[in-house]
């Protein structure tokens, strides 16, 4: 049975930009090769950790939302445990409400941003004169 999952993983901050992208591509390729469908991805960049992990206070965060069989998730997590570049990961199964929330959030992000209040006020001033 195919379900939708969301995995956030943290990579060690000592990686170069190229090494970090290579690690992300490894897991993208792993999922695609095993028949998973990647729904959404987001790279959050270098962020401060809430607490030190392996004596590191920052890490590269990356999110992958995908559809796959539960067995594949267990296999992927085992691969993440074996990869020394990954210092933490969390995979959650999304229910229909979480899926709807994520889709709504993505649509709002993609929608053209409304003009700032100052720009709108300037336009109304121009029309009055």
Can I get a quick summary?
By secondary structure, the chain is α+β, with helices and mostly antiparallel strands. The chain has helices at 17-33, 70-82, 96-110, 117-128, and strands at 3-11, 37-53, 56-68, 86-93.
Can you offer a commentary on this structure?
This protein has helices spanning 17-33, 70-82, 96-110, 117-128, and strands at residues 3-11, 37-53, 56-68, 86-93. The protein is of the alpha+beta class and 129 residues long. The protein has one domain (3-128): Ribosomal protein S6/Translation elongation factor EF1B (Alpha-Beta Plaits), CATH 3.30.70. A 4-stranded antiparallel β-sheet has the order 2-3-1-4, covered by helices on one side. Strand 2 (37-53) and strand 3 (56-68) form a beta hairpin.
Low-confidence runs: none
DSSP strand (E) fraction?
35-45%
CATH homologous superfamily grouping: Ribosomal protein S6/Translation elongation factor EF1B
Structural class of the helix and strand makeup? alpha+beta
- Identify the CATH architecture: 2-Layer Sandwich
Give the termini distance in whole angstroms.
64 Å
The number of domains is 1
Largest beta-sheet characterization: 4 strands, antiparallel
Taken in chain order, the helices and strands follow as EHEEHEHH
Radius of gyration: 20 Å
Number of strands: 4
Q: Give the proportion of residues in helices.
A: 40-55%
Could you say which overall geometry the principal axes of the C-alpha atoms support?
globular
Produce the secondary structure layout.
Blueprint: E1 3-11, H1 17-33, E2 37-53, E3 56-68, H2 70-82, E4 86-93, H3 96-110, H4 117-128
Antiparallel strand pairs: 1-3, 1-4, 2-3
